[in-house]
Amino acid sequence: MTPLSREIATIIRETGPIGVDRYMALCLSHPVHGYYVTRDPLGARGDFTTAPEISQMFGELIGAWAAWVHRAMGAPDPLLLIELGPGRGTLMADALRALRAAAPGTTVGPHLVETSPILRGVQERVLAGTGATWHTSVGTLPGGPAILLANEFLDCLPVRQFVRRPGGWHERLVGQGPDGAFAFGLAPEATRGMTTEAPDGAVVSVPGPALDLARELARRVRAVGGVCLLIDYGYVRPGFGDTLQALSGHAFADPLAAPGEADLTCHVDFAALALAARETGAAVHGPVDQGDFLTALGLHERAARLRQKADAAQTGAIEAAMARLTDPGPGGMGHLFKVIAIADPALGPLPGLPPG
Ligand code: SAH
Question: Which overall architecture, per CATH, does domain 3-17+27-157+210-345 show?
Fold first, then answer.
């Protein structure tokens, strides 16, 4: 039993089984026992490794991309560079370095949206001297045209799940079995208004907060200009399948076994995200596979430049990082991860991203 298990058990006893969205929110963001509130989960000794932690090339290419976009935006000075869920601050640090080299003379104001006090502490050290400002939600970000980045952020926003049964779609709930262990169950009544046909047992995830965010970002770029670059693992065609997953020590775990102790995520529905942004009046570029995006941005050329000054061990590490970031195999980062941009329609084509 984790401390959070006891609290969730009390909630279920008092109010009945809870939605997957509430369960995810408690596990990840509970103010005392939440996964992100209590630890730095990244890296070899943590639970998962993200692209910026694999190689500096990832953030540098995104910084060069941002410099190109900045010019296309008419080179606003200062430039607002926003990141949602910045982890250890590695992507921002690498991107800032490349952006400042490509756009010398431009003042860049980094703004970071982070709820984890522990990760914010790491970011403050890594980004010391950059003039960065921190926020706990997008609500307090300054207005004006911005370039916004988010890598592996959308996957940790809560989703509701529904399961198709003969009479309709029933919400998937977390309750307790006879032995007291948490168990998935279904709401007894079908959800009104959900009519999509699907095979019995099909599961659909509805990412309410991610869609709300996509609409908010779309409204923002539509009103004041700018671009939001979102990178995450997910799928590009609407699908029926349960992608709720827990990761602990770099291995998949039971999402219900240790609330607050394992990372809990859901694959991102890029089709739904694109639709929400487009319906709000923004242009959508992509989604495109991460491997294709990085290759188009010059990953191989960047690696070749780094190799010129590298010893044998460093050369091996550069090669391995490049292969991992672009791995096109099933489950490989190059294919599983997608890149999408929500942009001001006035901007036109963006590097590495075909129009959606
Ligand atoms: N982008 C980083 C880290 C990804 S992990 C990287 O690529 O390495 C997810 C990040 O989102 C963490 O920094 C976590 O603390 C943050 N986070 C999770 N939920 C959040 C929320 N609701 N609001 C802001 N940040 C959140």
Answer: 3-Layer(aba) Sandwich (3.40)
